[in-house]
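lol forgot to send this yesterday, sorry. struct tokens for the thing we talked abt
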């Protein structure tokens, strides 16, 4: 017997939530993609003007951590709904992208480097 993945179950819940409110009329791919970007911006806002070496400490404050977790939830809900509406298999898309990235960023060249693909310093 085939069991739905955790991702598929979440997508079902998200789609049901939107359907109960008759929001499908607003939740087309364009608007969902824009909403993902807006919510990602709200997530980034918690780290704006924070030095890189201090960014992890932002999450030490319980109130800020709760707000960040809420933004992560917003981003994921909208991204999963986008994928469902666009009929994109999230697990397959992630596996395919990881495979492409493994080719693009081979360990022996990319390890420890933040350089873009093909711009690694010679060892």
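and heres what i got for the seq, position by position
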């Amino acid at each position: 017997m085939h069991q739905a993945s955790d991702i598929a179950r979440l997508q079902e819940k998200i789609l049901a939530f939107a359907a109960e409110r008759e929001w499908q009329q607003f939740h087309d791919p364009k608007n969902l993609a824009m909403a993902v970007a807006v919510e990602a911006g709200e997530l980034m806002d918690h780290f704006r003007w924070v030095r890189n070496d201090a960014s992890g400490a932002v999450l030490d404050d319980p109130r800020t951590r709760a707000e960040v977790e809420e933004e992560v939830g917003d981003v994921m809900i909208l991204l999963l709904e986008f994928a469902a509406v666009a009929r994109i298999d999230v697990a397959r898309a992630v596996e395919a992208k990881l495979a492409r990235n493994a080719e693009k960023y081979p360990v022996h060249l990319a390890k420890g480097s933040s350089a873009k693909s093909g711009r690694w310093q010679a060892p």
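The chain has a mean pLDDT of 93. anyway ping me if u want another try
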